[in-house]
Structure formats: C-alpha cells, structure tokens
Amino acid sequence: MDNVKYFLPETDIPTAWYNIAADLPVPLPPVLHPGTKQPIGPEDLAPIFPMAIIEQEVSTQRWIDIPTPVRDIYRQWRCTPLRRARRLEEFLGTPAKIYFKDESVSPAGSHKPNTAIPQAYYNKREGVKRIITETGAGQWGSSLSLAGTYFDLDILIYMVKVSYGQKPYRRALMETWGGRVIASPSNTTAAGRAILAEHPDSTGSLGMAIAEAVEVAAQDPEAKYALGSVLNHVMLHQTVIGLEALKQMELAGDYPDVVIGCAGGGSNFAGISFPFLGKKLRGERSTRILAVEPASCPTLTKGKFAYDFGDTAHLTPLLKMYTLGNTFVPEGIHAGGLRYHGMSPLVSHLSNLGEIEARAYPQLGCFEAGMTFARTEGILPAPESTHAIKGAIDEALRCKRENKAETILFCLSGHGHFDLPAYQDYRAGKLVDHEYSHEEVAMALAGLPSIT
Amino acid sequence: MDNVKYFLPETDIPTAWYNIAADLPVPLPPVLHPGTKQPIGPEDLAPIFPMAIIEQEVSTQRWIDIPTPVRDIYRQWRCTPLRRARRLEEFLGTPAKIYFKDESVSPAGSHKPNTAIPQAYYNKREGVKRIITETGAGQWGSSLSLAGTYFDLDILIYMVKVSYGQKPYRRALMETWGGRVIASPSNTTAAGRAILAEHPDSTGSLGMAIAEAVEVAAQDPEAKYALGSVLNHVMLHQTVIGLEALKQMELAGDYPDVVIGCAGGGSNFAGISFPFLGKKLRGERSTRILAVEPASCPTLTKGKFAYDFGDTAHLTPLLKMYTLGNTFVPEGIHAGGLRYHGMSPLVSHLSNLGEIEARAYPQLGCFEAGMTFARTEGILPAPESTHAIKGAIDEALRCKRENKAETILFCLSGHGHFDLPAYQDYRAGKLVDHEYSHEEVAMALAGLPSIT
Question: N or C: which end of chain A has fewer CB within 10 A?
C-alpha cells in the first residue's frame, strides 16, 4: 500500500525562503505613515523592528537565505511530515486524494515557531535584549517564548485579559519556556493605565495589547516589538511550509489541484500556498488556492480592500488590505487565531488580483469537521485548523459528486491540545453560529480612514 | 553537522513484537488464582480477555507477528523519531551522547496507543462490542478511546473521581474520541454502590476503578476488560519502541551503553529496553538497563519481590512482582502514571535476576530536569517522562565527571500538554518531595498474602 506520510531528511530543509513579492504581476501598494499618510521609510520602523526584518519587509528578491542558526533550530522538528489522510478519504467515500502538511508537530504545536525563531535570531544579532509582543489565544506568545529560550532573550507578552483567565494552559506553557506574561490592559504602561482609568473592568482586546507592547518596545532602547502574522516578513518565513510540501508532493508522485489554508492574519495560509502560487504566477504549474475564514470574521469574503490601521489606537502604519474596519470586534469564537479585522497585505493583494479564492464557514460546521478528523486521522486539530479541514472535506465531497480524483492539499496549522474546553462546549451544544451580515460589516467599514 | 533526528520509513515498522519470555534465563513464576492460589489456566482469564491476548500472555515464542490492520494504524505515527539531544548535551557540557526515542508524537501523546491498538483489534476480531477499562491520569483511557474509533468499539472508562475533576482536558480528549467516562466510584456497579454507601464522599482510587471495570466486563457477554500496563502482553506490544530504536541507533552509527526508562507499571520501560536486554541475554551485545521510579512510589528500589494482588479488592490473580503491598497508597504526585503499588512481573523478574538496575528520584528534581529539557530541546515532557530525563541527565553528568563519551538512550514516553498545571505548581513552589521510608514500606508489606 502507498505511504500515509512522507518525511524529508534534515538536509531537505529549505536553504532560502521564497518571497512572492518577486513574482507579483502588480507591485504591492505602499505602507503609509499613520500621521502624514505618505509612504514610510525604513527609519520609521527602526524603533520597533531590527533592520534585517525591515529589509525583508520591503525586499523584492525572490529567494532570501535562511541563516544557519535558524536552520539548526528548524532541524529539531522540520521537515514536518506531509501526511495522506487515507482514513478520512475512506470515511468520505471520495475519489479525491487528501494530503495535509502537519505543522502541529512543532514544539509549540503550530506553525508559529517558523517565524518566531528567525525573528528572535535577527533581534539577537542586532543586540536586542528583550522582545515585547501581544498574544490573543497564546499560540504566538508561546512560540516566541520558545524562541527566547534558544537565543537567551527576555520575552514579555501582553495577553488579552479574558484569554489570560480562560486559557491557563497556554499561559503556563509560555511561562515554562521563560516568557513573562502580563494580562492586558495593565498598569505597566500609559496606554494600559488610561484604559483602566476609564474602564477598570476591561477584559482587554488585541488592539489594546498591541498598544501596550508597542509602547514598551518603543521606549526601551534594548527592546524591540514582534508580530506573529500579517506582515510580509512573517509570510516570507512561513514559506518553509509550502517549499517542503512541494518536495513531498513530488515524493508522493502527485501535485495538488487545490491548496487550502485557514486565514486569520494570513501566515499559515501564505506559508502553505505561496510556493505553489508562485509557480502559477510564473506560468509553470496551475493550482487553485483557497483561503478559509470564519463567517464571524469574514475579512476576505465581506471586507473591503482599503487602507486601514492594524490596531484600534491608530498607532500602526496604514496597510492596504482586506479589512472589516479597525473598530470591528468579532464574536468570541474559539478560533482565536482567526479573529482579526485585517488580513496580510500580500494575501489581500493577491486575493484582489483574483489569484486566491476565499470562503467563510460558521464555527459549528468547522468543529464537526474537526471531530471527523480526530476520529479518522487521530489528530485533534486546533479550532483554527478545523476551518482548513472543513474546506478540504467540502472539496473532497465535491469531487465525489463530480466523480473526480483530484488532489487536495491543506495545512494543519496546529493541534488542539490546549483547546479541549472548546470541543467540550461544542459537544455540549453550547456553541452557536454567528454570521456577520453585509449591513453590520458596512457599519464597521464606515469608520475607515479616508486615503486619497 | 550530524543529524538531530533519525526517521525510519513506514516499511521499517517491525513486523513482529519481541517476546523476552523466550530469552529468560529462568522462567517466569506462574500466575496464581486469587481463590485457590494454584496456577491459573487460560479459561480463568477468558471472561475478561480475548483468547488472542491470553495466548500472548503465556507465550514463550520469541517473535509474535503484528497483524496487518495493527501495522496499518501504527503507520499513522510510527516509526517514531529517534532524536539526539544536542542542545541538552551542550547545556550539560557532557562528552556523553544523549539520544531519546520520542513516543510523544502519537495521537494520544504517549506510548499507550502501541498496546491500545492491538488490544482493540483482538477484541474486535473475537466479536467483542465494548471494552471496559479504568484510568488514573487519563493517558491510558485516551489511548483506548482512540483505538475504539479505529475499530468501531464502544469504550467505557472508569476514571478515578479526583482525576475526573482535576483533569478536565484529559476527560475531554477521551470524549472527543468517543469514549464514555464515568467518575469512579459510581452508582453504575455493585462495587461502586457499596463504596458510596459507606463513603459517599470517596474521591476514588485506581483499585476501586479496576473493581468497577472488571465487574461490568465480567457481567456483559459482549464486553471485555483491558489493562494498559503490568501484564506480559502489554510489555510485548510496547517492544515496537525498542525494536525501532535498535535500527535507528544503527542509522546513527551508535549503540547505547545505557538504556533508561521511567517505570510505573513498566510498559514504556519494557518497550524501550527489552529488545536491547534480549541482545544482552542472548550474549550478543552488552548494555546497562536502568529503570527510574518516583521516590514516593519506590516499587523496585524498596518493594518486596513477592506474590500480590493487582487491586485492593483482591479480585485479580496473584502476580509475583516487586510490590509495595496492595494497600499502599502513594502520595498524590503529578506523575500519576507512576503511582502503582506493583510492577510488571517481567520487569520484576529480570530486576530480581540482576539484569535491570533501578533508581528512585523525588519529584522536584524530576520537574527541574523537565524544565531543563523543555528549555533546551523545546519539548514539554510528561511528569512521568521527567524521571527518565533526570536519569539520563545524571548519567550524562557522571560521564562528564569521568570524562567518558558514553552513549545514553532514554524513552520520552509522552508530552506534558495536559499536565501544565503541574509545571505551574512546581514553579510556584507548591510541590514538595516525599520519600517513603523503609519503615513505612515494611508496614504496607505486612499485609501481603502468604503464599507457600
């Protein structure tokens, strides 16, 4: 019988990341200064990012070398396995072949260390002593804490207060790796104190946590800020996923007709899809690319392609992206990693150019897909990843109806070991679906900054 | 640079388990009937185990074929990686080479599915509809639930009541895979009702849970009982660990001077060590074999090699094993998987013959070793596995003192994703060490049954 998984040796870990900016048919719109609304330069970002990261952010070079110390750490869990979901195929009775790239095998349980490691490395190399960041569900915070142990960096994480209380396991994981976690809003920053003065009982938000983290990083000359998604350099680092998958599909003697990823800020989606999309953009090989997002945060499917801020406090530069408006507050769904009002500018741009399809699913169907996956493939997926699974199952069922033996590839971005209460709530019937209407979206979009 | 991990293709999954009974210099003492105290026959076990399992329990055949449907499921995560702990070596400054076999990559996060899958398979093949078991910490219960999904079997788990409340994530995992979990003692059995009548607030014990599970299994003609450790067939199934490790050490161009495993009931320890010990018993190759146990449950280091019951209710057959006495109640340490009064008869017998060394550690040093491992190798170990890590670290430090470049191999039996509160308690200084004295052990041993 054919294999159910395809391993690559350590020597096959990519030596360079793939930068899709080199293959864009139309260049990316510039990033604008939040005050002047003019294109920003590297000096505007220097207080919060190391120069190597800023260079990657604006580079149009197709291949960017992965430093040896980063590859040496990647070796601990990369290449990650490409798996064939034979039991799921059998369960669905589909003629389609379903493959998935399993990023859940990283020490932090998701794809996030792929960028946390190089970000920590570049900061360390430029003499930074500590990195400040924010985290919602905790996937990013734990990955950066892990990276901190490898490069002897202090990691300070502002964790949205409601998650800080609700997700003690994630917090414990960050602390086990030496990260310091502060519930946000806090009295450690001016931004936090201002919020608490007005709303002493605030449960926090990602926007508030970003404001606190950026404030601390900007004021401390030995500290920088780090972001776990959205920005170009993050998409770049994540392409190790798709580059390995390309080689593994070759090992399997196959090539995907469709590549699927869940999309919140866009990083695991870009990671799995950009190397395949690049082949398409260069006219080498054709593949459908499908982004799946939650119906309660339908950035790509109902948002507007426009300039917007990354935070509610309007401290960040303006990015041209699909957005639901920076005042948009998604429902408290369990796929915390997909609750962001904006979307990676690169993913947004390519989506706007028609190179990427998008689809939104309500959460109940995603949890059902996650349960099916857990009971066929044995792996408990993260709530975020269940969106990609739902997309893959629907494509496989379409193949069944159309009697087509297509090849489907999706990214399993992480495991759900720290999300078990969400599965309990789902089985207990405590979860409901919420779909944002076009009217609600239009209201949130009314507050967008006007850029001429 | 040399590899940090060694993968084997699916085709290298062993085709047969290794039965160390074939190579014993002295045969295993017989199992005795709890009533007659005479050696039992297969018919005595037939009400609770399928015949294929009973045959394996008493077999002295060296190799026992692994059925194809079992290997097909093993393929989803086996062969598991053999990893070289280079960062840990560097941190310790040791000339020793430290390898570990990573059983944490299984869907349930431990080595337990290695035996849950074949046990479910044999039960299914003999027409069984449901399997009843007990679980303490939940590693075994979740593995058997997973196995139930693969073979469409109902799994009913009596979970010690105190764990049922304290470990909601483990319970949720079992239920996600379709297992039914009942807090024990319960009013679903005569045994449970009797306990509750006398102690309505009982928080339960493994002994009580076993009594309930066996009662249900014995009364239901469509049900059998399953055990996750101690018995010979469980040790047999776990030898896939060591058989793969043998091949992988060869890939690495190395051979262990010492093989280390943590030991509770003995199954992961037997799994990693028996294939190496077999080579030693057959005079092919020499290796030290080291079992590590908690100082608060020092079965091998302070127990007595004697006939004892497996449960407090004296329903099970009498096994000759190292035991602390069936009335022994270990402290509530976090390594729940190592809290058993007895030890696998095979491990006990070989230990008594001088083929196995044993060592006991208090829990604080083990958690410290676990933190060191998490911060060097990135993997968060289960509290049970930290005992093997502590053993490996101490051996590596001995090598440093003696300036010897020995090769150390240990089994990472599982990850600690569901044990994060234990790490929080450790860091908060809430855990204490408890070492059982020889006097306390002697008292518990005074209640042993007298067998002439």
Answer: C
Substitution target in B1, B173, B334, B379 with the highest count of A β-carbons within 10 Å is: B173
The amino acid at B368: E
Among the partner-chain residues A105, A376, A420, the one whose CB lies closest to the CB of B169 is: A420
Architecture per CATH, domain B67-109+233-445, reads as 3-Layer(aba) Sandwich (3.40)
- How far lies A354's CA from each of A26, A203, A232, A350, A358, in Å? 12, 39, 19, 6, 10
Distance CA A180, CA A137 (A): 15
Separation CA A410–CA B288 (nearest Å): 45
Write out the DSSP string of B308-365: EESSTTS-SPEEEEEES-TT------S-GGG--SS--HHHHHHHHTTSSEEEEE-HHH
Residue corresponding to tokens 């006495």: B325
pTM of the complete model = 0.95
CA distances from A65 to A13, A45, A52, A56, A68 (A): 12, 22, 12, 11, 9
Q: What is the dihedral of CA B186, B189, B195, B198, to 10 degrees?
A: 100
Contact yes or no for A223/A129 (Cβ under 8 A):
yes
Widest pairwise Cα distance in chain A = 65
Burial group, residue B447, by CB count within 10 angstroms (0-12, 13-18, 19+):
exposed
Mutate to test the interface with B, among A1, A8, A10 (most CBs of B within 10 A): A10
Domain boundaries, chain B: 67-109+233-445
Nearest Cα of chain A lies from the Cα of B424 at a distance, in angstroms, of 6
In whole angstroms, give the CA distance from residue A386 to residue A382: 6
Q: Is B424 on the interface with A (CB under 8 A)?
A: yes
CB pair distance less than 8 Å for A375 and B175: no
Instruction: Walk along chain A (452 residues) and give the pLDDT tens digit of each residue.
Output: 678 999 999 999 999 999 999 999 999 999 999 889 999 999 999 999 999 999 999 999 999 999 999 999 999 999 999 999 999 999 999 999 999 999 999 999 999 999 999 999 999 999 999 999 999 889 999 999 999 999 999 999 999 888 888 788 999 999 999 999 999 999 999 989 998 999 999 888 887 888 899 999 999 999 999 999 999 999 999 999 999 999 999 999 999 999 999 999 999 999 999 999 999 999 999 999 999 999 988 999 999 999 998 877 788 899 999 999 887 767 666 777 777 789 999 999 999 999 999 999 999 999 999 999 999 999 999 999 999 999 999 999 999 999 999 999 999 999 999 999 889 999 999 988 887 777 777 877 887 888 76
| Å between A363 CA and nearest CA of chain B | 17
**Are B176 and A149 an interchain contact pair (Cβ–Cβ within 8 Å)?**
no
Report CA-CA distances (Å) from B404 to A164, B167, B234: 47, 43, 35
Q: In what helix (H) or strand (E) does residue A272 lie, and over which residues does it extend? A: helix A267-281
Contact status of A172 with chain B (Cβ, < 8 Å) = yes
Query: Of A310, A350, A164, A297, whose CA–CA distance to A229 is shortest?
Result: A310
How close A150 comes to chain B (CA, Å)? 7
Write the residue in A146, A169, A424 that is nearest to B420 by C-beta: A169
ipTM rounded to 2 decimals: 0.93
Instruction: For residues B340 and A297, give the distance between their C-alpha atoms in angstroms, rounded to a whole number.
Output: 49
Interchain pair B5, A75: CB under 8 A: yes
A 10 A CB-CB count for B402 gives 10
Omega within 30 of 0 (cis) for the link into B449: no
Closest CA to A335 of A374, A298, A366: A366
